[in-house]
Specification:
alpha/beta; seven-stranded mixed β-sheet; four-stranded antiparallel β-sheet; 14 helices; 17 strands; 33% helix; 13% strand
């Protein structure tokens, strides 16, 4: 007989119905076995059906195998682990996996069909039966997420609907076709060579970065890069020896919290229309490293002034320190020529940090560190012997996407789209709220709306009441930034990249509706 993957359950050997002669229940002994299958009772695992699905069941070591199997299946169904409609493996495969006789598994299936726990149809296999009484829900391990806002103008996210799915899929297919077999083994902590090579070319061409593939280390994003540099027992710049870290007076609280958790003391630098006032670094001997968003200060906007760019590199040389360059929004500029990377001024004193989070999607979890030569081995030691974060397959796909020109085409397309959104926002504000000053709009995915003193909190409350999600400027201010060094300013940080195209006009309308009238 030919073994098949779908096996209709056998008639139960312990049926409670009387036989044709009026006899009582069968005892299931050898005398009533089907002669054609009597020899299957000793079948071993070697006869397993390869098409069977895996099913985990714990059977006790002693006692009736049939009773134990039925009890285990009932408990899995009753507890909800096997939901209604779940297809079970063929009894031959299950018997081989559990090391029991085929007839035993077949009898257990048939009995459970008779009891209503399972359903069997010729050609469709055996499935868990639909039941009138639902399985009690399992206790939630965490509270439900908050409801999504009606309008979302929070910063930091690109338009998720604009991800280039077709082009990415095509690049992935080409990358997998060309990938060597070793790409499917343990990952190299430095990252795939294919990606590091195309990144070296792309960053040199588009951002003015001076590097080679051996000085690039792939990571899973900017936060991961900070952890490699500052956190953990193998941190590259441990707080106990690296000293304090200078940061911009306005920035992400998440990054400050990450650094604080690593024991790093952050010293805020005041900002003005030319970016961070780096001249004060000369008077802070405890600081040897500075973290700056040089291309587009986050969140206030604007590039670091050329004179200050040269000054901070000179400071790092003289102090024997480092500048960490967060190339935030470096690819999205609208009204000015692109500002090249600070790293190009001195590759041995600047660590360049970039990601695909804004240009493609934060879901990719891909970033890169362009390192001074003396830090490469230390960063790799911090990562460990194997890549634990960034998928090698995503790296290969991104490498192909960049190399084929797909990345450049996507960035140019999104640059036009985001510029159009920015223009629509600025135009609506000029018409509906001309008293509101808009800044930081020459590049990036957000704008800063300056508000009258004392109005930020009330405007945010009005926004929440209308289902409009956006951020206040106060949330980004460093808690140690002295008012005399830089007075606090009320404002809103409006992310115009977040909503999909169809939702953007309504979001802008909701924003204009909650803005305060002129005083």
């Amino acid at each position: 007989m030919t073994d098949t993957s779908v096996d209709p359950p056998r008639t139960p050997r312990h049926s409670t119905a009387a036989g044709p002669s009026g006899a009582g229940p069968s005892t299931g002994g050898a005398s009533d076995r089907d002669p054609s299958t009597a020899d299957l009772s000793t079948a071993g695992p070697s006869t397993a059906d390869p098409s069977g699905a895996d099913l985990h069941l714990d059977l006790p070591a002693t006692g009736s195998r049939r009773a134990a199997l039925m009890a285990a299946l009932r408990e899995a169904i009753r507890g909800g682990r096997l939901a209604p409609g779940t297809r079970l493996p063929p009894y031959r495969a299950l018997a081989a996996d559990l090391g029991i006789a085929r007839n035993t598994a077949a009898d257990a299936y048939a009995e459970l069909v008779a009891e209503g726990w399972l359903t069997a149809r010729q050609g469709s296999g055996t499935t868990v039966a639909e039941r009138a009484e639902p399985v009690p829900p399992t206790r939630a391990r965490r509270s439900s997420p908050p409801p999504r806002p009606t309008h979302d103008l929070r910063q930091g996210q690109p338009d998720a609907a604009a991800f280039p799915r077709a082009a990415w899929l095509a690049a992935g297919r080409r990358a997998l076709t060309a990938a060597p077999n070793e790409a499917f083994g343990p990952g190299d902590p430095q990252g795939r060579r294919e990606l590091r090579e195309v990144l070296a070319d792309y960053l040199a061409r588009a951002r003015g970065v001076r590097t080679d593939p051996d000085r690039i280390v792939i990571c899973s994003g900017f936060a991961h890069a900070l952890r490699l540099l500052f956190d953990g027992p193998r941190a590259v710049l441990p707080a106990r020896t690296a000293g304090a870290l200078a940061v911009e007076g306005y920035g992400l609280a998440f990054h400050r919290g990450l650094l604080a958790a690593a024991g790093v003391t952050t010293v805020p630098l005041p900002l003005d229309e030319h970016g961070a006032r780096v001249g004060g670094l000369a008077h802070q001997p405890e600081v040897r490293t500075a973290l700056l968003t040089t291309a587009h200060q986050f969140p206030t906007g604007g590039p670091l002034h050329p004179g200050r760019r040269a000054a901070v590199v000179d400071w790092a040389r003289g102090r024997g320190g480092l500048v960490l360059e967060d190339d935030y929004d470096g690819e999205f500029r609208y009204d000015r020529q692109p500002v090249g990377a600070l790293q190009g001024l001195d590759p041995e004193r600047v660590v360049y940090l970039g990601t695909a989070s804004k240009s493609l999607s934060p879901a990719l979890r891909l970033g890169w560190m362009v390192l001074p030569d003396h830090l490469v081995d230390r960063v790799l030691a911090a990562k460990g012997e194997r890549e634990a974060w960034a998928s090698a397959l995503d790296q290969l796909t991104l490498a192909e996407f960049i190399d084929s020109g797909g990345y450049d085409r996507h960035v140019r397309r999104m640059r036009r789209r985001y510029r159009d959104r920015r223009d629509r926002l600025v135009g609506a504000l000029a018409e509906r709220a001309p008293h509101i000053e808009v800044t930081g709009i020459a590049a990036g995915l957000h704008a800063v709306l300056r508000l009258a003193p004392g109005t930020e909190r009330s405007v945010l409350k009005a926004a929440a009441y209308r289902g409009l999600a956006l951020d206040g400027l106060a949330d980004y201010r460093h808690p140690l930034l002295a008012p005399e060094a830089m007075p606090a300013t009320d404002g809103l940080v409006v992310g115009y990249g977040t909503p999909p195209d169809h939702a953007y006009p309504a979001a802008v309308e909701a924003l204009c509706a909650i803005l305060p009238s002129p005083l």
